Hints:
By secondary structure, this protein is an alpha/beta fold. The chain folds into 2 domains: 6-260 and 302-319, Rossmann fold, CATH 3.40.50.300; 263-291, no CATH class. Helix content is 33%, strand content 23%. The strands form 4 sheets. Strands 1, 2, 5, 8, 9, 10, 11, 12 and 13 form a 9-stranded mixed beta sheet that branches. A two-stranded antiparallel sheet has the order 3-4. α1 (21-33) packs across α10 (304-319), α3 packs parallel to α4 and α6 (185-201) packs parallel to α7 (231-239). One of its GO terms (biological process) is iron-sulfur cluster assembly.
Amino acid sequence: MPLDGVKNIVLVLSGKGGVGKSSITLQLALALTLQGKSVGILDIDLTGPSIPRLVGLEDAKITQAPGGWVPVTVHPTSTSDGARRGSLRCMSLGFLLRDRGDAVIWRGPKKTAMIRQFLSDVYWGETDYLLVDTPPGTSDEHIALAEQLLRLATTNPAAAASSSSSSSSNLPRLAGAVLVTTPQAVATSDVRKEVNFCVKTQIPMLGVVENMSGYTCPCCGEVTNLFSSGGGQVLAQETGVRFLGAVPVDVRFGELVEGKVVHESESEDEDGVPSAGGQKLELNQDMIEDERPLVERYQDCWSYARFEGFAKTLLSEIEQGGVGQ
């Protein structure tokens, strides 16, 4: 059965390209796993798949099993100090390309067929939340996704709960969509079209995230507004959708997904105190790569606290049967 084992589906949408849907999807997925949930990411941005690069697994390959394609594992389920961390797996066309630089030049019908195959032929197993990273706009991919999900899933919490208790079937719940924008009016105007898309397709809206809202200092965490701010909150108020919050640019997260190495230690004076007095700290030339799992390194990012809040808000709303719109 398609999507067998998947309990909840959350779409990440935006009418504008370049607003950071993929990074929002990944951070929300990591935050959900740290809440003990097993999470899958389905990347249907067919012409620009970003998830393989963001999770640092560009060379990974999809394997075939009797139940369908097996997603790539980013990290497995684990328990540490009594706290459970859920698994994270992902599926993307990027894993199926022979070379990561290959261009995907497809017409609408082939894109539609690929999305249908992703929704019917991937074996997710037991998955609490499946996050779907979408391309910008409201084109063929979105129409195919909406049609297929509204056929394979339910937006009714009571129906999903009833199905979950049945041993013969396990109907997933289309919990809703998270809408991503940046503060600028050119972005919020396009996201309004995505709100209209959700209304017309009867997809619930879980909330709006304002991405790139200022800049987080990598040293102290102070946020500075480089451009405008508040556009996402105004959009949420005018459309009646919950405002989940603003996400400043986080240099630490950028370095994380770019696979930067870290310095082993700072140079110290003879008293064992790092150099001060207005002088630059000299860093040890020995550099080491942080080999901890992605989810553990993410907890060092300034933005983690914000996404932890987003995850708790969504869990509270979805698991208590509420909907955004």
